[in-house]
Amino acid sequence: MAEHGPLCVGIDPHPGLLSAWGLPDDATGVRAFAMTVVEALGGRVAALKPQSAFFERHGSAGIAVLEEVLAAARGAGSTQVVLDAKRGDIGSTMAGYADAYLGEHAPLACDALTVSPYLGFGSLGPAVEAAARTGRGLFVLALTSNPEGPEVQHAVLPAGHAAGGSAVARTIARAAGELNAAETARTGAALGSVGLVVGATIGTAADELEMALDQVGGPFLAPGVGAQGAGAAEIAQVFGGARHGVLASTSRAVLGAGPDARSLLDAARRAADEVAAAVR
Ligand SMILES: O=C(O)c1cc(=O)[nH]c(=O)n1[C@@H]1O[C@H](COP(=O)(O)O)[C@@H](O)[C@H]1O
């Protein structure tokens, strides 16, 4: 983030973008699309974030392409690879996802994985353990950028629950904060490995966390920049004093500049400069 500016570029091969790039809506088109992004931006942006859904929609051929794209992106030097798969399940099944994405010999290995805590934060245990063991990270959904998120994330826990009267999202931020505090006390690192997803579009909703965002002690993946309407002003508004930990994420706003590699890089650099100014 310090080297390239705190920008993550999503690799989201939407059917509409494949068509705009003159590519077929099949696994070969997805491969050409994703590899073009990796070649144009690998080693030149802080992070790349393949969106698993757009690979999965092509079945086993698409997943094989995702495997190849993850390996190529991880080989591209100083760029972190965040896989956006938003996985979440009961703990024993979560262990399967941990093997797939975070284990020692994970076929779909990434540097960090997006996970959903909405089966209860504790259900993520196997992913937390695998990430710690293999030196990887997680981005846990907390306050997402979509308008439907608040009906779950802002829901208030009943009296009698240990966090009764607080929003569900607060329990997630607190649990992540505890893991990060234990890790940073041990390692001395500035930030722990359990990041949160907090959309750049959420306005004042971080108030639901009833804690300063910098108490989370981990990075924030902040999608919603570009196509969903957020920019520098929104990042500054949402994150305030915690903005040094923000990795802003954008997909369509940069991908729309392709397929020309130079245009992709120019669009990414413009976006990175804008978010760097916003978090300074
Ligand atoms: O985890 C994510 O990255 C994510 C979380 C969230 O709250 N909102 C959100 O838009 N995303 C993802 O970020 C990308 C946003 O793409 P654009 O709207 O094109 O920038 C998509 O792949 C979304 O699935």
UniProtKB/TrEMBL annotation:
The lineage of its organism: Bacteria, Bacillati, Actinomycetota, Actinomycetes, Micrococcales. It holds the Pfam family OMPdecase. Belongs to the OMP decarboxylase family. Type 2 subfamily. GO terms for molecular function: orotidine-5'-phosphate decarboxylase activity. Keywords: Decarboxylase, Lyase, Pyrimidine biosynthesis. Residues 6-267 form the Orotidine 5'-phosphate decarboxylase domain. This is Orotidine 5'-phosphate decarboxylase. PANTHER family: OROTIDINE 5'-PHOSPHATE DECARBOXYLASE. It catalyses: orotidine 5'-phosphate + H(+) = UMP + CO2. It comes from Actinotalea soli. Pathway: Pyrimidine metabolism; UMP biosynthesis via de novo pathway; UMP from orotate: step 2/2.
